[in-house]
Structure formats: C-alpha cells, structure tokens
Amino acid sequence: MEMTLRWYGSKFDTVTLKQIRQIPGVTGVITTLYDAQAGELWTRDRIKALKDEVNASGLHISGIESVNVSDAIKTAGPERDEHIDNYIKTLENLGEEDIHLVCYNFMPVFDWTRTELARVRPDGSTVLAYNQAAVDAIKPEEMFDKLSGDTNGSIMPGWEPERMVHVKELFELYSDIDEEKLFENLFYFLRAIMPVCDKYDIKMAIHPDDPAWSVFGLPRIIINKKNILRMTGTVDNVHNGVTFCSGSYGTNLENDLPDMIRSLKGRIHFAHVRNLKFNSQSDFEESAHLSSDGTFDMYEIMKALYDIGFDGPIRPDHGRMIWDEVAMPGYGLYDRALGATYLNGLWEAIVKNNR
Ligand code: DNO
Fold it and tell me: How many domains does the structure of the chain reveal?
C-alpha cells in the first residue's frame, strides 16, 4: 500500500504540499480539480498543471478524488450521454497524464451527510457527527443553512453553495428514481466507461454512500456487501472496483468491515481508513483513528487489507480538529497526520508479523 493524504489544491486547502511532504511515510496525494463541475470535461492542460505543482513538492498524484458524476448521469436525464462523453474524455486525459485511479460516488443529491460539523468531545477536540433524530427533524434545504456556520470558511465536498440553492429541484430529479433504477443507471455509466479504463489501465473506485442508508427518502445503493458484490459482479471488470471507506460502511453496525474487505479481494483500489465512535445505534461521531478511541478494531481492518494483498493508495480519513487548527472540518493537517502515522505503524507491525 502507499500512504497518501487528500489535498484539495492550493486555491482551496489550508494544508500545503510542503506540510504533507513532511508527514513521515506519506508519498502521494489524492487530489482533484475542486472547482470543476460534475459533467464538465477536464482538459489535459489543467490536469498537467496540477500534476506539475504536486511533483514540484516532491510528492506525486496517487489518484483523483473525485471526478464527480453528474445528476444527469445518475438520473438518466437528457444530458446523460453528453456528460458520459465528457467523462470518457476526462479519463483519457488523465490516462495520458499517467494517472490511474479515480474515486467517484453515485449518491443522489448529497455526498456524505452529517448533522454537526463541530461536536465537542471530552478532550476539547471537535468532530463531525451524525444523529438520525436530527435528520428526521429537518428539511434537506434547511440542513445546509444549519451547517454553514461551522465550515471554517471552506467549501465542503458535495455541499457546494451553488448546488444547495437548487436543492429542491435536485430532489425533483430523483422523484421517480428508486434503488433499481439507480443501479441500472450506474451499470449504464460503468459499461460506457470500461473501454477507456481498459485502454489506460484506470481503476475506478466507487465511494460508499455515507451514511450507508437512505437519507431524506433518497435511494442509496453502495451501502453493504450484497450491493457492492452485485455492482462488481454485474460489470465484472477489474477496473470496476471500490474505495473501501471504513467510516462510511461502518456507519451501519451490521456491516462486518474485515469480512467485506476479504470479499472484495482484487477489487479494492483505494482505502479510506478511519474510526467512528457510536453513542447509540443512531448517533455516532468521528473519533481519532486509534482503535481505543472508537468502535472499530483498526488492526483487524488493516490486517484484512494486508491479507487480500491490497497494494493501492490508502489515506487517513476525516480527522478531528485539534490544537486550535482552523481548516475544513475533517480535513485539517494535525489529526490526519496522526492518523497516517498510526496506520503506518499498524501496517509495519502486520508486515513484520507475517515474515
Ligand atoms: C468525504 C469524502 C467524500 C468522497 C466522495 C467521493 O469526506 O470521503 O466526499 O470524496 O464521496 O466521490
């Protein structure tokens, strides 16, 4: 595996490439053209400029998170084929620039959903948190306003203000889309892009829905073992793979994370590893990465990745906000650096134990 950190680009991130380069064991970044709209074509020039900037810091691009998939593709809207053509051309341009991993999601309307961006923990750190009763008590269009005071001035992925003003229309688009239709639209998209992925050896890695169940009545499909195996089995191509995100699949305590990892041997192309602390079945917060701070056994998760021969990029995921850092919630430097170091430590121990 390769340890990486997510970086939103110098225009959007408070964390610098220089800082990332100084985290021991981190050699690559996972990045994106953060201001590109879903459905838009990424030109080769823009990709090259991003790549040159990252290379100049002594790091390299280990993958893209995300090339977003438009709502037209997810709902089979009138612009679907045009957007798929743009997606294919974007993949071609990434391939020409020697980039071989793309993370994306197929979540309707929202990317991840949390009800708090700065819940205070006993040690004074703040974390993202989710409470089902709070979701049930609010209209989706109110959610954005509720959270917007706690973003520390950053644009949160999937919650871009220009999208949120259209949130009611977005819901309309999905009014006749159920889980079956969403699956069909996903398969249509995957079948269309597999040839270009084969040509350039681009591994597509779908990110799970977070939380792993329906929110606000919207269909959600990338939520459990049965559904991901359906996805990988229906479009049975090694380039059709997954991002294994422990914090997203882990929102549903019925998901057995090490077992899911083992069932996806050869198809996990990217891993997001983080811990959650459950206060009840329907209330959780994002803890530090350590097993002892949360609900998951992080050793077992890393061990399962090792056992299936996982050799892709891995990244610590959302961190707590600590040491008075002001950054995008979940994406500060300090706690993610601690997370990367901890995960590297677990990995080193596992490797040496297996010699
Ligand atoms: C949240 C992230 C997600 C993820 C997308 C992938 O912090 O893990 O926003 O990047 O769902 O498309």
Answer: 1
